[in-house]
């Protein structure tokens, strides 16, 4: 969390976000007056499913985990993580139907929201906003498709390798989206459990593929990680 952010007027906070690319200053100003600012603590349940048919949310700061949970076993899988600039809930914004998912903050988080009807009005008035929202929806759809493919076709070690490859930051070799997540969090991102992820990360480390340092994961052998990512489930007979 950057302290100087808090003093910035809302249009300034919106300008760098991809979602608002192409909007003029006056248009950003109009949007800002119609958005309600929100602030959430770390590890809080936010954006209840019932509210998503009324409001569309955009993150300004922090990360939020979106999950599906089995009502009886309590087993959960993370569908995706929201980063600053990401919107929730895109599906409901486009089809108006409720989407039964759980949302939990992973950091102290700031967001803005407005009623769906207002967003629909803005999408009509501002073609650049309509374009970026559709692009974001397409990105989300692609992520969910990759998750379905991973869960159906790949071994857990390959799913973990995919996750690390997807969020690699080649500059520093660390994963900003995964930073500070515990093994339980990582397990939920690949549809597994903590003990398995713990074992796999230790194996990757032992094999010299990764190194860990204060919550950061560094890739030390990219070729080795790519080989891990290729492993598919044995064909089921």
Helix content: 40-55%
Strand content: 15-25%
Cα end-to-end separation: 51 Å
Report the average pLDDT across residues. 89
Radius of gyration: 19 Å
Given the structure, what is the number of helices?
9
Largest sheet: 4 strands, antiparallel
Q: Which overall shape is indicated by the principal axes computed on the Cα atoms? A: elongated
Class by SSE composition: alpha+beta
N-to-C SSE string, H for helix and E for strand:
HHEEEEEEHEEHHHHHEEH
Which helices and strands occur, and which strands form pairs?
Elements: H1 10-14, H2 25-34, E1 36-40, E2 45-46, E3 55-61, E4 64-69, E5 76-82, E6 87-88, H3 90-95, E7 102-105, E8 109-115, H4 116-125, H5 127-153, H6 156-166, H7 183-189, H8 194-206, E9 210-213, E10 216-219, H9 222-229
Antiparallel strand pairs: 1-8, 2-7, 3-6, 3-8, 4-5, 4-7, 9-10
Helix pairs in contact: 4-5, 6-9, 7-8
Write up this protein.
The chain has 237 residues and is α+β, with helices and mostly antiparallel strands. A hairpin with a 2-residue loop joins β9 (210-213) and β10. α6 packs across α9 (222-229) and α7 (183-189) packs across α8 (194-206). The strands form 3 sheets. A 4-stranded antiparallel β-sheet has the order 1-8-3-6. Strands 2-7-4-5 form a 4-stranded antiparallel β-sheet, sandwiched between helices. 41% of the residues lie in helices and 20% in strands.
């Amino acid at each position: 969390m950057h302290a100087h952010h808090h003093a910035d007027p809302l249009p300034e906070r919106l300008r760098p976000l991809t979602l608002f690319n192409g909007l003029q200053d006056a248009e950003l100003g109009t949007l800002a007056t119609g958005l309600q600012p929100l602030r959430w603590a770390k590890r809080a349940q936010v954006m209840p499913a019932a509210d998503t048919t009324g409001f569309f949310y955009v993150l300004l700061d922090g990360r939020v985990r979106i999950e599906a949970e089995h009502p009886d076993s309590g087993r959960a899988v993370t569908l995706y993580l929201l980063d600053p600039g990401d919107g929730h809930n895109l599906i409901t914004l486009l089809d108006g139907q409720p989407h039964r998912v759980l949302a939990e903050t992973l950091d102290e988080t700031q967001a803005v929201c407005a009623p769906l009807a207002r967003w629909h009005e803005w999408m009509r008035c501002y073609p650049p906003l309509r374009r970026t929202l559709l692009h974001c929806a397409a990105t989300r759809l692609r992520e969910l498709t990759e998750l379905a493919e991973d869960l159906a076709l790949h071994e857990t070690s390959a799913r973990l390798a995919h996750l690390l490859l997807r969020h690699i930051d080649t500059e520093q070799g660390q994963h900003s989206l995964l930073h500070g997540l515990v093994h339980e969090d990582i397990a939920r991102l690949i549809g597994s459990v903590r003990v398995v992820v713990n074992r796999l990360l230790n194996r990757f480390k032992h094999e010299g593929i990764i190194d860990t340092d204060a919550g950061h994961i560094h890739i030390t052998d990219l070729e080795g990680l790519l080989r891990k990512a290729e492993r598919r489930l044995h064909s089921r007979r």
